[in-house]
Amino acid sequence: MTFFSEERAAELREVFFESSQEILQGLNECGLALEKHADDPAILRRVRRALHTLKGDAAACGYLDMSKLAHDLEDAFSAELPAGKTGALAELVLTAADTFHAMLSAYRENILPPPSEAVRACLQQYLGQHPGQHPAQHSAPHSAQHPGGGPSTLPPAEHSASRGAQFGWSEYEQMMIEEAVARGEAVYNVALEIVPDSPLRAAALQLVRNVLHACGSILALRPDDNVVVEDVKVIEAAVASSRSRDWIEQKCAIPSVVSAILIEKIEDSEMKIVESGQAHLVPQAVPPSSVAALHTVENSLRVDTARIDAVMNLVGELIIGKSALQQIVSEFEKRLPRDPLRSRFVDALAFQSRVLGDLQKSVMKIRMVPVEQLFRRFPRVVRDVAKSCGKDVALTVSGQQTDLDKSILDALAEPMAHLVRNAVGHGIEPSEERIAAGKPARGMVRLKAYHQGNQVVIEVGDDGRGIDSASLLSKAIERGIITREEAARLSPAESLNLVFQPGLSTASQVTEISGRGVGMDVVRTALEHMKGSVRIESKPGVGTTFLLMVPLTLASIQALLFRAGDQLYAVPLTMVLEITRATEDEIHRVDNREVLRLRDQVLTVVRLDRLARTRPVAVARRLYVVVVAVADRKFALLVDRMVGEEELVMKSLDGCLFDAEMVSGASILGDGTVVLILNLPAVTARLGKAQPLEATA
Amino acid sequence: MKKDLHLVGFRVGRETFGVPIAMVREIVRVPEITAVPNAPDHVEGVINLRGKIVPVVDLRRRFGQPEVQKSKTNRILVVDLADKIVGLIVHSASEVLKIPAADMEAPDTLLQENQNNFVIGVGKLHGRLILLLDLNKVLQRGELNGLNGLEQPALAKA
Fold first, then answer.
1. Which residues in chain A have their CB less than 8 angstroms from residue B146's CB?
2. Are residues A96 and A156 located together in one domain of the fold?
3. Residue B37: which of A611, A668, A674 has the nearest Cβ?
4. Which domains are present in chain B?
5. Which among A319, A419, A434, B124 has the fewest CB atoms less than 10 Å away?
6. Tell me: the pLDDT tens digits for A552-587?
7. ipTM of the complex
């Protein structure tokens, strides 16, 4: 709005972008619900409320296109709904949600919003099926007009048919009316047609409004009091009045201003029906969770994640400071064991570290959000993909309450969408095939989240045809990703992992196998980026499950510290399988590659001392071997000395001037030493093939 | 009448260089430097600057001079560079120099070619020559292809 300062307006827009995401999510859910229960008034109510909020918010931010679209849609939904217009309605809501989403992203980028033709076409189509509606009205420029002609043109017989279209009150206004009726007041819908060529239009309109105000208390008015619209033909109002209908009619008949009058009493009984219908629907369609949600909205505060991150960083520094203090205290203890200050020092430090621990936990909790936020968007994805490939697929979700760091949640959205789309598109068989295989016709996609140690596991599973590993193998050999000999050596689990190979990632190559592998390397890369991993479980004919394992938080990690070539490094503990020892004699060269035989496994050797420009680890002595798993391949890292296990507060090296591909972050230890956290996928990719060789599969 | 230029003077090899004082955050002794694998040659590593991790560039190596023996006078100049913080290892950091703008000259073309335009001015102070450095260029040009985020030449602040 113009009377806001630019700064204030920008802030307002930010809030709008935030809140509108939730509204759109709500719209999406409503659309899906409408598909099942098309004429559920509770859902329609929610749609109307969402549209109304969007309209107001968008207008307040100056996004008139969006506001107008919301307005037109609201009109359509405020109208009396015809029975049996089920599919179109759901489609309309979903298309509208998409359009709003596109508009919002455009506004956010400060570019022109995309055209809203699709949703308007949908709207037209929907209205076209609606006998009481006049679709042409909706393409008219912004005005407070409502479908339905002037009252004078309507013979009494048509009144009831057009009433809904005419008095298109918003959700809020309707509520007010309902309340007034419930209080026992008489509420009239009044429509006055204004003489088109009346000389002082603005004054005439004001006059009419004044008359209406005189009739009783106005619950709703179109056009609004403060809107000056040039081409207003009809003024509509809902008036709660103690006067009789005739009295109002008489009062409103202003010569040479009002050309026609329509007054109808809003019947008590009519409202009752709606109310009773609502009453028995409430427990079912508006579950208690939404009441709870209402409460949380009141008690919650929207905070920019950057601010939380700033607090998180400060806590991280405090923790570094704490370990520094601890080191000093232990030094103190060693030097002055008898000093009376010593125990006071230790006590104070113990207290401080306890509080600090609590502080860290609380701040971490701020960042935690239930995975439900992520899962919510998948019913829509499943529906769209299932519809486009003509399948019948249901989605079940469990463990929505599992908490996860917000940034991880955001990063998971993309890979999960990929997996869900794949599961519906390729994993689930068409109904006929399923019935032939003795499975229920309706396919099932499962999303499940749960804690496992310091990790959160998210499962994306289907009960489809599973991955045929034999044909996957032959495809991989054909593509030259692995050799025939290598293929023979792969375990079943390892061969399944071939779907993550970029070479197998385009649909046309793999469709005849299973179709999996569409951008699967992207999924794996995304997970590795957040220090997680992905695993596949698949049984032919039974289904496939992807297990995404992600850390609880990105802010700190449990890490294993060791030295290699005089340098201190850390790797995430979750990637470490075991630590063992070996001598140089046990390292063999096979295929130009250095390998280490560990029990029955052959591991590729990675010499970490090659990372830095330092002298190599002395040969022929006993070395420490850290066995790590990177994307289900195992590597043996040769290190000089183990240092220990520690919780590290991650600091990214983004601010650095160079490309530090080998390092995913750094941390500062209690004594001030900087330790680098190795980016294992990059390190093993580079050093695992230190000697030139043809394939590393 | 222009104001004096306020420069932080430091020595690399036998020359005295200067950078505008506004760019310099602080000057610290050389702490333990952690080498970063696969980093460009002139990047010595990263240091812990009171809880911040700051990359360190060796200016001696950057200027193609033989690496001078580490000595106690070595310092790290912590500078603000286009919202990034970078440490520069210098032979020794001297003092704040005030040079009248009139005494600052554009460098000789010959020098420009030799020095890859690092030097954007030559000042005279008590008979000494002070080379005014454009740090954006120092950290951007030549083989420093690993640099991120400094591709667009920022305006020299001097």
1. 657-659
2. no
3. A611
4. 4-138 (2.40.50.180)
5. B124
6. 776 677 889 988 877 889 988 888 888 888 877 777
7. 0.73
